[in-house]
Amino acid sequence: MLFCREPSEASKNERMKFIALKTNDGELKGDIAFYCRCPHVSRQGFYQYIARKDRPRKYQPLADAMLEILSEDECNDTYG
After folding, report:
1. How far is CA 80 from CA 60, 73, 77, in A?
2. 17-71: per-residue pLDDT in tens?
3. CA dihedral 43, 46, 50, 54 (to 10 degrees)
4. Domain ranges, ordered by start, for the chain
5. Where are the extended beta strands (E) located within the chain?
6. Cβ-proximal residues to 6 (8 Å cutoff; 6+ apart), any chain
């Protein structure tokens, strides 16, 4: 997934997920510097990602309501 491309070609979220996977969500402290250096991610950015990754999105209730309205009628997918 990640190593098939240049680090700049993978999205920031993909790179953060990769590091979280390899370091067991930041628990393997000795490996974090290495895994952040390879895909060009700062350690501070990675720690911020870990801190906010389980938080709900800011507008999640609104997005859920919009998806519910969209699924009510089959013609809603062409609106707008």
Report:
1. 21, 14, 9
2. 889 988 888 888 888 888 888 888 899 999 999 998 888 888 989 999 988 888 8
3. 160
4. 7-78
5. none
6. none
